[in-house]
Amino acid sequence: MSYYKTWMDKSEDASNRQEYMEYINRYYALEKVAYEKILGAYPNNEEFLNGTAAELAKKLEFPKDAMDVFVGFIDGIKSSLTNGDDIDLEAIDDNYELKLVIDYEKLYYNMRDAKADWLFGIKAWKDILSEDKRNEITREYRESNMAHSEHIGRNDPCPCGSGKKYKNCCGKKG
Fold it and tell me: Sign of the C-alpha dihedral, residues 127, 132, 134, 135?
């Protein structure tokens, strides 16, 4: 069975709640260590981004018995890579050559989107993206997830532009 298949089976099977939570918590812990290494070494982090799957897993401190969790990490970061479409998760074995080309702004946004405060809160982000840029990405994330409604409230400004409240203008009942 491939590492990816094992990852998918274990990360989606919550029939034994305790085993599932242990597996997911192990993933979160290993994921955080990996990101701390990658982000902490920026911009000279090539050693953590290129090599065989087994080499990268070892450098990022994934134990040998956690290669499925490592592939889960690759699955998670894949949408933040400029070359993510080139990675075949099903084909990853110990000798699979990986080259991770990270779009750091997209990675930060995706960490916000995953509500992974243990990841977007990593201190090394301050050396990668300016505070203004991190704030801009956070605003962009919040705005894209805001509920929008076409409904005009009684006390909202009238959309006709009169400056009056809707209830005292176009919303007035005749």
Answer: positive
Q: Residue ranges of the alpha helices (H) in the chain? A: 3-12, 17-40, 53-59, 67-77, 104-113, 117-120, 125-128, 131-144
Please check whether residue 34 is in contact with residue 61, taking contact to mean a CB–CB distance below 8 angstroms.
yes
SS3 label, residue 101: coil
Pairwise CA distance, residues 87 & 85, whole Å: 6
Residue with tokens 């939570």: 21
Q: Which residues, 6+ apart, have CB-to-CB distance to 148 below 8 Å?
A: none
What's the residue count for the chain? 174
pTM, entire model: 0.83
Q: Residue 139: its pLDDT value, please?
A: 93
Phi/psi-derived region of residue 97, left when phi > 0, alpha when psi is between -120 and 50, beta in every other case: beta
Mean pLDDT to the nearest integer, 100-106: 98
Q: What share of the chain is helix, strand, coil (3-state, %, to 5)?
A: 60, 5, 35
